[in-house]
């Protein structure tokens, strides 16, 4: 049976709706418009036949995970044999990601998938990060995030993680609480990170107390994000309700539910105001997420020394590899970014998760924290058209 939540409607009432899940992200039921998820079929015939391999590589890179599915990647193909990656500054999350750390990680995930794809085609991708200078710690600008030079190289080795790119999806559903993550799966995820200088940690079977602390911090951080009007509104702004809106945007957080769609059409689904903290719309989501955390048999984290922009990119690369390795093991992942976010209301969960993950020395940063487990498959998240990312 589908779990129900309640959403607030104009005038203060509430109505049952499909699960509005963590990060304000919706757990979709079936019925996504096919064109919104066509990218998951892999490169189209025209792209596969194109003698310029860059579009083939980009067809895979745009399947990378990105915070709030904002897809802030711009690929400049102006110079042959080269891709210049820039950030679309219209696609940021100033409230929940005020320093754009997660945006930089989301460029790291893109670069990792690009590199895996280049290897698959026998190409060496020489990636120069911030070739026009590194962004400061607070703001991004129009300078390039990376310049990627591609050249054939017989010494390049294919990476088996490539095979997981089309299969990887963020899974926000409940996980099987009775199925522990086996040691060999943790080992595969740890091994996947080794290319990057990040510390991988996890908690799982036989560590009931540790699991309970992770659940508690994640639940509290989620409560804060949901009951802080400006942060919950940031998710509402990129919430796409119903097939027509999803097809029009092909990004953001998707919600497919006939009741909500109907209410939305007649102007009764209120997306213009944050629900009050004690509103059923808030409390039911908090409860729902707590249940999902309770079902979760494992948590993992990635800690960096320092928090430079280059480090954030590498953390994104490492996370992409962890999730692909988890996919190969049949495991699902969902990042838990709330406690890692750098806005004032999250200061306590931020301190708690850093202490718990042993990131207490100056500069040490928990770049990623995620829940891990087994769950039935989910549908893919929308992606825009390949040409939408390309500036020739
Ligand atoms: C840096 C980063 C932070 C993220 N944080 C969250 C999060 O807190 N909660 C969540 O459900 N998903 C989170 N995600 C997953 C994205 O929402 C997801 O990648 C996006 O919606 C696209 O879906 P896909 O991963 O299935 O392709 C995060 C992803 C990245 C790269």
Protein described:
- Mean pLDDT is 92; it is low at 1-6, 10-14 and 18-29.
- The chain contains 12 helices and 13 strands.
- It starts with a strand and ends with a strand.
- Helix 2 (54-61) packs across helix 3, helix 3 crosses helix 10 (309-328) and helix 5 (208-227) runs antiparallel to helix 9 (280-294).
- The longest helix has 20 residues, at 101-120.
- The protein is of the alpha+beta class.
- It has a single domain (34-238, 274-373), classed as 3-Layer(aba) Sandwich (NADH Oxidase).
- A hairpin with a 5-residue loop joins strand 1 (4-8) and strand 2 (14-18).
- The strands form 4 sheets. It has a 5-stranded mixed sheet. Strands 7-10-12-11 form a 4-stranded antiparallel sheet. Strands 1-2 form a two-stranded antiparallel sheet.
- Flavin mononucleotide binds at residues 22-23, 25, 65-69, 102, 105-106, 109, 169-170, 172, 334-337, 381.
